[in-house]
Every structure is written in C-alpha cells, then in structure tokens.
Amino acid sequence: MEYLKKAQHLEQTVSNEVEKTVKEIISTVKTERDAGVKKYEERFSKSVRALRVSEEEIEKSVRSLSYDEKALIDRVVERISSFAKAQLECISPLEKEFGPGIHMGHRIVPIEKVGAYIPGGRFPLLSSGPMVVAPAKVAGAKEIVACSPANYEGGIHPAVLYGLVRSGATHIYAIGGAQAIAAMAYGTESVPEVDVIAGPGNRFVAEAKKQVFGKVGIDLIAGPSEVLVFTDDTADPKKCAADLLAQAEHDPYARPIMVSTSRTIAEQTIKEVEQFLKEYFSSDSPAHESWAQMGEVIYARSLEEGLDICNDYAIEHLHVHVKDSRKLMDRLHNYGSLFLDSDSSVVFSDKVSGTNHTLPTLKAARYTGGLWVGNYVKVITHQEITGSGVDFLATHATEQSNIEGLEGHRLSAELRLSDKYLYNI
C-alpha cells in the first residue's frame, strides 16, 4: 500500500481535561440534581429556560412547520420504524427440551426506561431523533426520555422536536452535553432516571456515557463521522469526492478516507475534492479542516490488499465503488454499515433509507455493530428441571461440587437426588 495523502492526526483522544470536567459535571448533577443541570446549562449553553419542553411549546413548534416539512419527517420515522420492526422479528424467543426433563429457553423483554440523547451540533439533523427514539418505541419501551440542547432560539429546533414526538418520546428536555447524560443516568427532580442511554454526541457526551456505564447501559461510544470509499478503476472520481466530503462536513475531526486499486482514480478524486471544496463549501465549513487534517488516500496494489486495508480500518461507513461489489460482501467484516455500489450513498442512510446512522467509530466495528432495536431489549434465560432431568443434573452437580470443594453447592444439588441415591449430608 502507498499513501497518496496521509492524515495529520490519526485519531482523536479524550484529554485528561475533558475527563476531569465530565467527572465534575456528573458529580454535581448527582448531588444538586435540577440545580446542577441548570448551572451547566447556563454556563455552557447560556440557557436559563425550563428544562422540560412543555406541551404548549411542542404545539407551537409543530404549528410552525409546513405540511411538506412534517410529511418529510413522517417518512423518516416510518422508514426507520419499519426497518427496526423487521429487525425485531429476527429476534425470536426460545423454548426447547435439552434432554428428558430439562426445559430451557429465553424471552425477549423490552428495556422499560430509555434515555435518548439527540445532538444539536452545527446543523439541525432531522433524522437523529428518529434514529435513536423510533427503535426504542418499536422495541416496546414504556418510557422514552429525550434530551437535546437548547441551541435554536432558546429551545430545540421545531423539526427536531416534531421528529421526537412522532418517534414516540414520552418526555422531552432542552438539555445538552454531559449534564444531560448525568441527569438521565441518575435522575433529578425533573428528569426521570433511565435504564439505558443511547445516541451520538460530542466528546463530552461520549465521555459522560463512558463514565455512567454500569449505572446504566449504553449503546456505544460514537466519535466524529468516518467514511472509507473503496474503489477500483470503474469508479467515478466526482461521486467518490462527493461521498468523502459529505461526511467531512460533519466535524473537523471527521475522517474521510479513500482506498483505491487504481492510482489514476485516486489522484483524480483528490483533484475533485479540492475543486468541490472551492466551489461548494463555505470557508467556515468543517469539511476544509477535516480533509486537510484527517483525510487519507491510499493506493492498494491489489484487490486483496484493498480488502485487507478496509477490514483493518474497521470504519464507520464503508462505501464500495467496485464492480460487482456484492460479491465482495463476505470478505468484508469490519464496518459499522456497508454501502454496495457507487449509487448507494451514505447520505441516504444518514437521512431516510431506514438503517441506523448511530454507528461505531475508531475501530469499534471490530467488536460491535451500530445502534439497533436489539439495544432496547433484553434476552433473558429461564429453565425448568423435572423428573429424570433432576437426577441427571443433580448427580453431575454433586460430583463437580465435590471436586471444587463447594459444600453449599453440593448440598443444594444432593438434596434433589432421588431416594435411590445415598445422601452424604
């Protein structure tokens, strides 16, 4: 492999200062509750408003949207919900006999109280709310607490608010950052305590989720957006460049990466990126810094080498601009979400196709997928032992407990042996 362009910063790490700040925020919110949340809202967001979004505020926001705007968001909610329902249908309960008198299985039980974090960011991302909330609703969560920063005219953007309502949020709060995560994890006078927290956010949100994990469950730690565009000599450099920049505009630390088996396509794509940046992106767009500091273009000398590079990067979005790309799917196994062929734009998934855009970054795709309906259910096991199954298991457990020296275990097992066995108790 050969780098035609190499990133200046290979990864973003959480500084000790961020870790310390988040620890302080969580401690304050645990102790001071609503007052602690309001303290940090005023400090970081300059917000002095009520924490909970009232029904009157929701109704006013909804009225401000046009019919077409609401129809567009409704479509997003419907498609995300439909995909989540199809996924849930794949998770089946189990009830089976594993030998005479040994019945075991599992049930699929919804998480009761879900916390959804919806980032504010530079732009009002209309799909972010439905991406986090709709699968929880499909899973059967009884209570869905949604938090989003009050960074639009002192509140949550009307379109984002409408998406949360349509997706099934039961409580909505204009709270952002680590204080929102702390409030949902530990509860305050206003914010209910939840069982699991899901949703992307900035480095403070990611660090807060990391620190409250254990007290509550979390989906994953998601960093700035990543995309790897894998190409051969059939690729269109303009489409490749556009796909790289679509993710680069999310954040200065976003990682736009290209791996190509064609040096010509790779070099032409670099030129197209530079041209697009001049023509289509404002000077303050994060895309400029992202491409300059984080962008990479790699020439792979063979298809096999290119596939190995893709799997090693374990990227968030893997977009394959290769002829007959579906044939390569079984050879690609480390990615957050896979996009086959040049017209399967990552943007479609970002917005409306139906798969979730909350995905693993920084090589976490080696061991996990993205947010899905399965994050909002528990697979819990059960067993019922009767008849000859009791004798079989009790005999084994007694003998094993003797070897292990666990008297209490031996006692519990041996008491269940039938009368034909000699009790040594």
How is this fold's topology laid out?
Elements: E1 2-5, H1 16-32, H2 34-45, H3 55-63, H4 67-89, E2 94-97, E3 102-110, E4 113-117, H5 128-139, E5 143-147, H6 158-167, E6 171-173, H7 177-186, E7 196-198, H8 203-212, E8 217-218, E9 226-231, H9 237-248, E10 255-260, H10 263-280, H11 286-294, E11 296-299, H12 303-313, E12 315-321, E13 335-340, H13 346-351, E14 377-385, H14 388-404, H15 407-414
Parallel strand pairs: 4-5, 4-7, 5-6, 7-8, 9-10, 9-12, 10-11, 12-13
Antiparallel strand pairs: 1-11, 2-3, 3-14
Features:
single chain, 425 residues, alpha/beta, Rossmann fold, 3 domains, six-stranded mixed beta sheet, five-stranded parallel beta sheet, 15 helices, 43% helix, zinc, metal ion binding, histidinol dehydrogenase activity, Histidinol dehydrogenase/sulfopropanediol 3-dehydrogenase, NAD
Brief synopsis:
With 425 residues, the protein is an alpha/beta fold. Helix content is 43%, strand content 17%.
How would you describe what is shown here?
The mean pLDDT is 95. It contains 15 helices and 14 strands. With 425 residues, the chain is of the alpha/beta class. The strands form 3 sheets. The chain has a 6-stranded mixed beta sheet with strand order 1-11-10-9-12-13, sandwiched between helices. 43% of the residues lie in helices and 17% in strands. Helix 1 packs across helix 2. The protein folds into 3 domains: 16-219, Nitrogenase molybdenum iron protein domain (Rossmann fold); 224-370, Nitrogenase molybdenum iron protein domain (Rossmann fold, 3-Layer(aba) Sandwich), CATH 3.40.50.1980; 387-425.
